[in-house]
Amino acid sequence: MRAPSTALVELLELLRRRLHMEAAWLGRLDGDLLVIQVISGRELPLGLVAGSTVRRDQSLFRHILAGDLPNLIPDTWSDPRTVSLAPVRELAVRAYAATPVLDADGRTYGLVGCLSRQPQPSLGDRELRLLNLLAGLLTGYVTDLHRMWESRSRIWRRIQAVMEEGAPHMHFQPIIDLRTGRTIAVEALSRFRTHAVPEEVFADAAQVGLGAELELTAVDRALAMLPQLPPDIRLAVNASPSVVTNQLADRFLRTGRPEQLILELTEREYIADDDDDLFAVVERLRSHGVRIALDDVGTGYAGLGVLLCLRPDIIKLDRSIVRDMAVSPAHAAVAAGMSRIADGLGSDVIAEGIEAPADLEAVIGASIGYGQGFLLGSPRADLTSLGRFPGISGTSGTSGRPLRPLTGARPR
Fold it and tell me: Which residue ranges are recorded for the region named Disordered (predicted)?
């Protein structure tokens, strides 16, 4: 069964076309507000989008619900009942059709209607019957919509509360040079006082339209710690592709130390191999010394096409591959193959999720030069005690493969 919102858009589009209107919408009553939940239209008038709210005292809907206005007026400027109303004049509503929608218990759920900035003199009883028919059909959907709305409202309030308490709080996990045991970078990781799983919090935020705001907050808090880092240690900051193309470059450059930054492209979103906007921002950052990392390679959306187009400076091998390398020839082969691909691309590889000595031995045996995980260093709120991982000495296990310095500039 299709989601109610998909079917609703189709019904609203049918209504909009039959009434020759610019937008058709379903709104839910919430106290003195009408909250637009679903909307259809090529050119939406009055700035209406899903999630918009209309106040009772600034709208026509209170008059319609009270029975002071009819459910359809073809030309509001020619009708004495509406010509002097503020919403009509200030918002240039020239024609409307709207009627209440009831829930399964017979209570008023909200309104379904259409708006136009042009008069529609041909509208009459036939169109009003179609509108009333649609309102009756919607009764079967609004219970599900009400549940969806309440669920999204709870998520929205929870994310807002998380942000108001000062979250996300940044922790920093070291990235280790496996030849020497030296910390050469730290990754900024978001944490929440409620001990919620960070990935789930970001997914919930994206679901209610707060994803970019939460991500950019995390970016700003990570960048604020850059002055506390020694100049030979880089700071890796996570961002999804849509956030990268939205003011992130300016944030990186304003630090005055972009050459000390690593941008980790997360795979919360699909990365298209023809995303020119993303690639343009990446090249701008790269030209200022920022190194580009592709996160969670091996499990997410990134395919060979993205690797070839993006040519990341750093490929981060996902923990789900690393943790079984010691016991699974298939996982070891994938890691070794990724190492060879990275070598051909001129990229470095960081193995994530190294949690046991066997993991570390397998990673070094695959000629992977850099590692990250609880065995090498757990995330911490401060940036003190950055140094060497004592369990590594010399270059044993690297097969003599020369490694590009992660802290240096990479020739393109």
Answer: 392-412
CB-facing half-sphere around the CA of 48: CA atoms within 13 A: 28
pLDDT in tens, 179-225: 999 999 999 999 987 667 888 888 888 877 788 889 999 999 999 99
Number of domains composing the chain: 2
How far is 284 from 12, CA to CA, in rounded Å?
A: 43
Residue 39 bridge partners (DSSP)? 25
User: Is residue 387 one of the residues assigned to a domain?
Assistant: no
Which token pair is 250?
A: 């300016």
Q: Which residue is listed with tokens 């757990």?
A: 378
pLDDT of residue 403: 40
- In sequence order, which residues have a C-beta less than 8 Å from that of residue 379 and are 6 or more positions away? 171, 172, 173, 189, 191
Write the DSSP string, 8-28: HHHHHHHHHHHHT-SEEEEEE
In eight-state DSSP terms, residue 274 is T
233 and 365 in a single domain? The answer is: yes
Contact (Cβ atoms closer than 8 angstroms) between residue 241 and residue 215? no
At 374 the three-state DSSP class reads: coil
pLDDT in tens, 350-389: 999 999 999 999 999 888 999 999 999 999 988 876 766 6
Tokens of 24: 């058709």
Residue 69 sits in a domain whose CATH number is 3.30.450.40
Strand stretches in 69-182, DSSP E: 72-73, 95-102, 108-116, 169-177
Same domain, 182 and 302: yes
